[in-house]
Automatic annotation (TrEMBL):
InterPro entries: TMEM120A/B. Belongs to the TMEM120 family. The chain crosses the membrane at residues 130-151, 157-175, 217-240, 261-279, 299-318. Keywords: Coiled coil, Membrane, Nucleus, Transmembrane, Transmembrane helix. The gene is TMEM120B. Residues 3-37 form a coiled coil. GO terms for cellular component: nuclear inner membrane. Necessary for efficient adipogenesis. Does not show ion channel activity. It is a multi-pass membrane protein. This is Transmembrane protein 120B. It comes from the Eukaryota. The lineage of its organism: Eukaryota, Metazoa, Chordata, Craniata, Vertebrata. GO terms for biological process: fat cell differentiation. It holds the Pfam family TMEM120A-B. It is found in: Nucleus inner membrane.
Length: 338
C-alpha cells in the first residue's frame, strides 16, 4: 500500500472521528435531558401519590357523614384513585428506582431498570429459557443420583446446584419486579423457602437418617422437575394467547403455580399438581417421624420437616384459592378470555 493511499485512509478515519465526536456530544446532551426528565417524572409521581393518599383519608372521613348520593360519588373517586395507582406502577416500570433490600444486599446500589420494551422482553425471555434449561438439568441430575451414582459427593453437587438455581431465580425475579412484572403473594416467597430447604439438604451430614430420606427426596425432585416442565409449556401457551389479545403485560411470568388467567387445560394439570402438594406433605411427615427416632441427632431433619410443611400449606392453599376464584367466575367470560 502506497503512502498516498495511507494518507487518504487516515483522512477518512479522521473525518469519521470528527463526526463521532459530534454524535457523542449530542448523545451526552440527550442523556442529560433524559436523566432530568426521569427525575421530574419520579418527583411528580411521588407528589401525586402523597396527594392521593391524603385525599383517600379525607374521603374515608367524609363517608361517615355522607348520604347515599355522596357515598356513590366517594366510591367512584376511590375507584379512580385505584386506577391511577395502577398507572403509576406502569410508569415506574420505565423509570430508575432504588433497589429493594434483597437486591441491595446482593448487587449493591446498581440500577437494574431496563428502559425499553425490547430490553425488558429480552430479559424476561432469557429468564424463561434459563428456568426451562435448569429444570431439564435438575431432572437428569436427580435421575443420575438416584439410579446411577449413589455417592455423597454427587448428592452434594446436586444439592449445591439446587441452592444456586433457586438463589439465581430470586435475584432474576427481583429484577423483573423492578421492571414492572407483577409478581406477588406466595410466588414471591416460594423460591426463598425452596432456597432455604436446598441449603439445609446441602448441610445434612452423611448418616442413617440421611440415607433413609435420600431416595424419597431424589424421587420427589424428579417428579417436581417433570411437573415444572409440563407447566412451562402449558402456561407459556396461555400467556402467549393473552398477550396476543393485549390482556397481559410482556413481563408476566410462566410460573410454577396458578394465576387468575389460567384455565384451559387446567383439569389436565390438577392431578399432577395436587399429587405434588401431597407428596410435600408426605415428605414432611416422613421427616417428622425420623426426627422422633432415638438415633436422630441432626437438626436438619426437623428443619426440613417444617420447611416441607410450609411449602405444602402455601402451595395447597394458593391452589385452592385460585381454583375457587375461577369456579366462581362466569364460565362464558373464562371461555372468552382463553
Amino acid at each position: 500500500m502506497s503512502l498516498q493511499r495511507c494518507q487518504t485512509d487516515w483522512e477518512e478515519i479522521d473525518q469519521e472521528y470528527q463526526q463521532l465526536q459530534e454524535t457523542h456530544k449530542v448523545y451526552r446532551q440527550k442523556l442529560d435531558e433524559l436523566t432530568n426528565l426521569q427525575a421530574t417524572c419520579s418527583s411528580a409521581i411521588s407528589k401525586q401519590r402523597k396527594g392521593l393518599k391524603d385525599l383517600g383519608h379525607s374521603l374515608c372521613k367524609c363517608t361517615k357523614t355522607s348520604d347515599e348520593k355522596e357515598t356513590e360519588l366517594i366510591k367512584d373517586i376511590q375507584m379512580q384513585i385505584k386506577d391511577k395507582e395502577n398507572f403509576f406502577f406502569d410508569m415506574e416500570a420505565y423509570l430508575p428506582k432504588k433497589n429493594g433490600l434483597y437486591l441491595n444486599l446482593v448487587l449493591g446500589n446498581v440500577n437494574v431498570t431496563l428502559l425499553s420494551n425490547q430490553a425488558k422482553f429480552a430479559y424476561k425471555d432469557e429468564y424463561e429459557k434459563f428456568k426451562l434449561f435448569m429444570t431439564i438439568i435438575l431432572m437428569f441430575g436427580a435421575i443420575t443420583c438416584l439410579f446411577l451414582l449413589n455417592y455423597r459427593v454427587t448428592d452434594e453437587i446436586f444439592n449445591f446446584l439446587l441452592v444456586w438455581y433457586y438463589c439465581t431465580l430470586t435475584i432474576r425475579e427481583s429484577i423483573l419486579m423492578s421492571n414492572g412484572s407483577r409478581i406477588k403473594g406466595w410466588w414471591v416467597s416460594h423460591h426463598y423457602v425452596s432456597t432455604f430447604l436446598s441449603g439445609v439438604m446441602l448441610t445434612w451430614p452423611e448418616g442413617s437418617m440421611y440415607q433413609m430420606f435420600r431416595s424419597q427426596f431424589l424421587a420427589f425432585s424428579i417428579y417436581q422437575s417433570f411437573v415444572h416442565f409440563l407447566q412451562y409449556y402449558y402456561q407459556s401457551g396461555c400467556l402467549y394467547r393473552l398477550r396476543a389479545l393485549g390482556e397481559r403485560n410482556q413481563l408476566d411470568l410462566t410460573v410454577e403455580g396458578f394465576q387468575s388467567w389460567m384455565w384451559r387445560g387446567l383439569t389436565f394439570l390438577l392431578p399432577f399438581l395436587f399429587f405434588g402438594h401431597f407428596w410435600q406433605l408426605y415428605n414432611a411427615m416422613t421427616l417428622f417421624r425420623l426426627a422422633g427416632h432415638e438415633d436422630c441427632k441432626e437438626w436438619q431433619v426437623f428443619m426440613l420437616a417444617l420447611t416441607f410443611l410450609v411449602l405444602f400449606l402455601g402451595n395447597f392453599l394458593t391452589t385452592l384459592k385460585v381454583v375457587h376464584q375461577k369456579i366462581q367466575e362466569n364460565p362464558e367470560k373464562v371461555q372468552k378470555q382463553e
